[in-house]
């Protein structure tokens, strides 16, 4: 039988595992947005600054020029990259906490490590890719 401490540890491991999955998903989403911003900015390098372009703002498509849109896209891309960096730090921190909990649980009991916890520990390289 598992003790209350083991049960609490397993619940914490499960909770941290869920957090890692949420962070991983958000990092992937923001990375995709950042890549798309980069593609648009690269395309703008070859275009006349006075050329018209269209941008969706708050669900409404508006007409602007490249020279007015480019600075906003650069700022948004920088913000996305910063957010990705912060989320990756959070991911690494939670992953370390999870590894520590798993090690402590393994030491305290001779029972196996929960499969979901060990799977998330091995998935850290996927997020950083």
From TrEMBL:
A GO MF term: unfolded protein binding
Pfam assignment, any one: Prefoldin_2
GO biological process: protein folding
Renumbered residue ranges of the record's region Disordered: 108-129
GO cellular component: prefoldin complex
CDD domains (alphabetical): Prefoldin_2 (cd23163)
Biased segments, Low complexity type: 115-129
Residues in coiled coil: none
Keyword tags: Chaperone
InterPro entries linked to this entry: PFD2 (IPR027235), PFD_beta-like (IPR002777), Prefoldin (IPR009053)
Matches recorded under PANTHER family: PREFOLDIN SUBUNIT 2
Family (UniProt): Belongs to the prefoldin subunit beta family.
The protein's name: Prefoldin subunit 2
């Amino acid at each position: 039988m598992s003790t209350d401490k083991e049960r609490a540890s397993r619940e914490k491991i499960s909770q941290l595992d869920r957090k890692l999955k949420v962070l991983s998903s958000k990092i992937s989403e923001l990375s995709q947005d950042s890549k798309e911003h980069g593609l648009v900015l690269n395309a703008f390098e070859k275009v006349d600054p006075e050329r018209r372009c269209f941008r969706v703002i708050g669900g409404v498509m508006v007409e602007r020029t490249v020279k007015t849109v480019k600075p906003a896209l650069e700022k948004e891309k920088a913000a996305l990259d910063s957010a990705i960096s912060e989320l990756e730090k959070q991911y690494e921190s939670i992953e370390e906490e999870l590894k520590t909990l798993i090690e402590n649980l393994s030491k305290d009991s001779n029972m196996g490590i929960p499969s979901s916890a060990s799977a998330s520990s091995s998935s850290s390289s996927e997020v950083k890719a």
